[in-house]
């Protein structure tokens, strides 16, 4: 398996491709213009082909750079989405409960919030008295009635 390019270099490529200028990319990345240039050169060396055509007034993407850009954008979008989704899972306790138990449940949820302010509850009420955890996005459910067989 071929060694993957370094993630910081891919991020630098993405920002540089959007700016088409080492200096502006450096400003956005809060690093020096020389560091941007070295990261791009290292990435190009790793890949074995140039990603940019260096011109007197900026940069333009090579054919390979044009092919790389949407793929690198997609990779970073997947990473961002994963961070949001996984981070979001741990923030809220997703609870489903039938409306008929609200009088009983609400005082207990208020007590929960006092004891565990670090785990907020996202409550979904329903008139149904069941839950399918394999198809519904809940962590817990309050059920009223006989337990399922």
Describe the structure.
The chain has helices spanning 7-19, 22-29, 33-47, 63-91, 102-115; strands at 52-55, 58-61, 93-98, 121-126, 140-141. The protein is an alpha/beta fold and 149 residues long. The chain has 2 domains: 7-88, Arc Repressor Mutant, subunit A; 92-141, no CATH class. It has a 3-stranded parallel sheet. Strands 1-2 form a two-stranded antiparallel sheet. Strand 1 (52-55) and strand 2 (58-61) form a beta hairpin. Helix 1 packs across helix 2. The longest helix has 29 residues, at 63-91.
What class would the helix/strand composition place it in? alpha/beta
Order of helices and strands: HHHEEHEHEE
Look up the CATH topology of the largest domain: Arc Repressor Mutant, subunit A
Our Rg estimate from Cα atoms comes to: 26 Å
State the CATH architecture of the largest domain.
Orthogonal Bundle
Blueprint of the fold:
Elements: H1 7-19, H2 22-29, H3 33-47, E1 52-55, E2 58-61, H4 63-91, E3 93-98, H5 102-115, E4 121-126, E5 140-141
Parallel strand pairs: 3-4, 3-5
Antiparallel strand pairs: 1-2
Helix pairs in contact: 1-2, 1-3, 1-4, 2-3
For the structure shown, list the relevant keywords.
149 residues, alpha/beta, Arc Repressor Mutant, subunit A, 2 domains, 3-stranded parallel beta sheet, two-stranded antiparallel ribbon, 5 helices, 53% helix
């Amino acid at each position: 398996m071929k060694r993957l390019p370094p993630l910081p270099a891919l991020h630098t490529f993405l920002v540089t491709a959007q700016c088409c200028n080492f200096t502006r990319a450096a400003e956005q990345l809060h690093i020096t213009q020389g560091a941007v240039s070295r990261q791009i050169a290292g990435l190009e060396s790793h890949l074995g082909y140039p990603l940019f055509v260096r011109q007197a007034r900026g940069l333009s993407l090579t054919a390979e750079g044009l092919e790389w850009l949407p793929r690198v954008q997609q990779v970073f979008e997947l990473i961002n989405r994963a961070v949001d989704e996984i981070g979001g899972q741990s923030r809220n306790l997703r609870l489903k409960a039938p409306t008929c138990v609200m009088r009983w449940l609400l005082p207990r949820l208020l007590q929960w919030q006092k004891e565990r302010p670090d785990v907020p509850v996202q409550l979904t009420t329903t008139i149904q008295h069941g839950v399918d955890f394999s198809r519904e996005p809940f962590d817990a459910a309050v059920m009223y009635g006989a337990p399922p067989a």
